[in-house]
Amino acid sequence: MDKILLGCRGVSKRFGETQALRDVSVDIQSGRIHTILGENGSGKSTLAKVLCGVLPADNGEIRVGGQLIQGVPDPRMMLAHGVAIVLQEVLVVPNRSVLDNILLGQDGVFHRCMSVNEKTELARQTLAQLTDRSIALDRPAGELPLHEQQIVVIARGLARRPDVLILDEATAALDLADRGKLFDTLKAFCEAGSAVVFVSHRMPEIVELSDQVHVMQNGVLIAELEGADINPATLLAHLTQELVDV
Ligand SMILES: Nc1ncnc2c1ncn2[C@@H]1O[C@H](COP(=O)(O)OP(=O)(O)OP(=O)(O)O)[C@@H](O)[C@H]1O
């Protein structure tokens, strides 16, 4: 079995009256693309955000590489443990350059040791993995069209060289060519031993990409599918099944 890079056990999260997650346990394994599938409001984003420390869980535990995270995880702590997220919202700092936006938050020990040239090369190479477009590193990110801004925020996640990259509906603005290039990059990223958690609604890309699909309904993880079960008919059947015993 592949190594478990990130996992949660018995995670619950409530927003007021809404139980967004109920007793959810998942394992994210090296070399795999994990997809979280579910209808609107089923808890996909909440799970993604709990896994990377953007949201604290009410109960349960988070483990990285088998090690229990003590206390309340936050994004900086989880990044130090090799877990990065790209959120649904396209968050660039508009008046800062593309280069600065890609390197944003990279003040860890490893990146402090990099020269300006090395950082520029890292940003250039990461962008080239994601698009054939020519995006000038010195241009203010706010001047870019939305799909290029989205590429920049995905590049920021990849440039952090995480062990686990979480993409929460982060591809909506991409065109077909950039989407294809991203998927090739994610596959190569996993083949090198990392893992991806991919939150998406789009059935064709889920079927194309996933090594394992985790199906959410009303905050509950109702199914985990692999191999030949990752096909549109089976996924749809799980997606629409009525929940009993909840
Ligand atoms: N910050 C918040 N405050 C209050 N309720 C929230 C908050 N975040 C999520 N929720 C609620 O928790 C439930 C799960 O939301 P979540 O965003 O995780 O679902 P989702 O499956 O990602 O949905 P979508 O596909 O629409 O993004 C929903 O009912 C949502 O309204």
Strand and helix layout:
Layout: E1 4-15, E2 18-29, E3 33-38, H1 44-51, E4 59-64, E5 67-68, H2 75-80, E6 83-86, H3 98-103, H4 109-112, H5 116-130, H6 146-159, E7 164-168, H7 176-191, E8 195-199, H8 203-209, E9 212-217, E10 220-226, H9 232-240
Parallel strand pairs: 3-8, 3-9, 6-7, 7-8
Antiparallel strand pairs: 1-2, 1-4, 4-5, 9-10
Helix pairs in contact: 5-6
Bound molecules: adenosine-5'-triphosphate (ATP).
User: What are the low-pLDDT stretches, counting only 5+ consecutive residues below 50?
Assistant: none
Oligomer: single chain
The fraction of residues assigned to DSSP E strands is 25-35%
CATH fold descriptor? Rossmann fold
The radius of gyration computed from the alpha-carbon positions, rounded to a whole number of angstroms, is: 18 Å
Number of strands: 10
Order of helices and strands: EEEHEEHEHHHHEHEHEEH
Q: Can you tell me the number of structural domains?
A: 1
Bound molecules: adenosine-5'-triphosphate
What CATH architecture label applies?
Answer: 3-Layer(aba) Sandwich
Instruction: Profile the largest sheet.
Output: 6 strands, mixed
Spatially, the strands of the biggest sheet line up as 6-7-8-3-9-10
Distance between the termini: 31 Å
Structural class: alpha/beta
Mean pLDDT: 92
CATH superfamily: P-loop containing nucleotide triphosphate hydrolases
| Principal-axis shape | globular
Please give the count of helices: 9
Helix content: 25-40%
By CATH reckoning, the class would read Alpha Beta
GO molecular function, one term: ATP hydrolysis activity
Keywords: ATP-binding, Nucleotide-binding
Family: Belongs to the ABC transporter superfamily. AI-2 autoinducer porter (TC 3.A.1.2.8) family.
InterPro entries: AAA+_ATPase (IPR003593), ABC_carbohydrate_import_ATPase (IPR050107), ABC_transporter-like_ATP-bd (IPR003439), P-loop_NTPase (IPR027417)
